[in-house]
Amino acid sequence: MTLSDAEKAEFIANLEDALYCAKVCCYAQGFQLMAMTAKEQNWTLDFAEIAKIWRAGCIIRATFLQSITQAYQEDANLANLLMADTFSQALSQKHLHWRKTVAASVMQGIPAPCISSAIAYYDSYRCETLPANLLQGQRDFFGSHTFERTDKPAGEKYHLDWSAKQRTLSKV
Fold first, then answer.
1. Angstrom distance (rounded) from CA 132 to CA 46
2. 53: containing domain
3. How many structural domains comprise the chain?
4. N or C terminus: fewer CB in 10 A for the chain?
5. In sequence order, what are the beta bridge partners of 158?
């Protein structure tokens, strides 16, 4: 595929935005993992200090860590890095370019596992309801493990006789 100079410039700009967004999400996931482990282990972690330490002498040494330090200094109880105003606003502005980059990669058969999985994380974080019901349906189909319905109270279990001609839904 041959691109004009303008198309190349647009693609590069989109790619830069996609890389920025994916980087934010990768750090957000990493800090979220540390937060979850800290909760399980009853640790107290200072994420602003961690980001500062990494920037000061770790192998990472990314200038970007200063923005992370600042986000945690502004709100030490930040639930997720994606919730920090600076990152939230940037991702809101850049996510369409990120999507175009992932779409272009898929259409050209170019694997982009980190950029595409990062956008899946971003989208799942922004979603009120995730598609876990599909997974539950698959488990029920293959192993009669039951599933919950989103239109019924939580905790109510159902099973569907998937192979019957007249499928019957039963409450378990």
1. 33
2. 5-126
3. 2
4. N
5. 147, 171
